[in-house]
Specification:
The protein contains 13 helices and no strands. With about 350 residues, the protein is mainly α. It is a multi-pass membrane protein.
Length: about 350
């Protein structure tokens, strides 16, 4: 590896980012973010149902004149066609049942919202636990459910407020300038664009600080908690302003206006969950862990083993000396006998050969 890369990795903040990325990947950060996105989309169903019930309450209780206007609008669009009256009847039945719809939607929202927050907390704790294999600590199920609902309400209010401020600075800026009658003023235009930004950042900072304080399995160092919350606030503000701008560009196309908001919403949920988990991994890896050295990094020669006592001989020394003398004597005798025998055989062969020559 080039030396400049090693020098770059030696910088504390670069090393911190590398530890963050390693933990996020090793602890399935992308998979947890995808799961949070799924539960987020699932939780939108009761939210839409509740919004429809609130619409029914407004049109049937507070503003029945608007209901008459909508009824007349539908009838005019389907003149001399019975389908218009059928649509009006279906609409009136649906809107008049707003009370039942409200109860059902709130019940489903309480269950799905508490489950959503529980899954988000589990994902954050998976990044921040000392060991991923450690079991997650949870309290009483009733208390946990109420706590999750309270946390969910804080998160929802904060995100909606930030979206409203982002919309003021982007989508509705021209409309607001027209209402104020200062559409031609560059100073007023700059104020409308810039004023919501610090408020949005402050709301986002409070959101992330509250979320990490509620979900962290252990106390986070104050410095890293504040820095992480500030980074989350900036990231969420950029994400919301970008989503608002993209949402506005879809309004000019019929097909994009139908599918575009759904795509933007799912993309927002996924990036938002990824941002939360990345910052959780960043705060959890603020302190570098101990360096574990390999046992083969530095071989150490073992000292020779020493016996506690000298080994006991199997045969006494005197017996061994006698056996050695007897063995050597026996060897000499056998060697001499062998030498004499071989000499006699050679002499006999030579004598036989000499006699045979003389006879000839």
């Amino acid at each position: 590896m080039p030396q400049w890369i090693e020098n770059l990795k030696a910088k504390p903040w670069i090393a911190h980012l590398l530890r963050m990325q390693e933990r996020f990947t090793a602890r399935l950060g992308n998979q947890f973010a995808a799961a949070v996105t799924y539960f987020s989309v699932l939780s939108l169903v009761p939210v839409l149902l509740f919004a429809f019930s609130m619409l029914g309450m407004v049109l049937t209780v507070f503003r029945p004149d608007l209901l008459d206007w909508i009824r007349q609008l539908i009838t005019d669009q389907f003149q001399n066609n019975p389908i218009g009256n059928q649509l009006v009847a279906v609409m009136e039945r649906a809107l008049s049942s707003w009370a039942t719809t409200t109860v059902i939607s709130l019940g489903i929202f309480a269950w799905s919202g508490a489950s959503w927050m529980a899954n988000l907390k589990s994902a954050i704790r998976a990044q921040m636990r000392a060991d991923l294999g450690d079991p997650e600590k949870k309290g009483n199920i009733a208390a946990e459910t109420l706590l999750n609902l309270g946390t969910l309400l804080v998160v929802l209010v904060s995100v909606l407020l930030m979206f409203a401020l982002a919309s003021v600075a982007t989508t509705f800026s021209e409309l607001i300038l027209g209402w104020l009658g200062v559409a031609d003023s560059y100073l007023a235009r700059a104020a409308v664009y810039a004023a919501p930004v610090p408020v949005s950042l402050a709301v986002g900072f409070g959101l992330f600080a509250f979320l990490y304080a509620a979900a962290a399995p252990r106390r986070i160092p104050t410095r890293h908690w504040l820095i992480g919350s500030a980074l989350g606030s900036v990231g969420l503000a950029v994400l919301q302003y970008g989503a608002t701008l993209i949402w506005g560009t879809f309004s000019g196309n019929a097909a994009a206006s139908i599918f575009g908001p759904i795509i933007v919403l799912m993309l927002f949920f996924n990036i938002f969950a990824t941002l939360i988990l990345y910052l959780a991994a960043w705060m959890a890896t603020a302190q570098a862990g101990p360096v574990v050295r390999s046992p083969l990094a530095a071989d150490v020669v073992d000292a020779p083993a020493e016996f506690a006592e000298p080994p006991v001989p199997m045969v006494r020394e005197a017996v061994a000396q006698k056996a050695m003398k007897v063995g050597m004597g026996t060897g000499y005798v056998i060697g001499a006998a062998t030498g004499v025998g071989i000499g006699a055989v050679v002499a006999a062969v030579v004598g036989w050969f000499s006699r045979a020559v003389r006879k000839k």
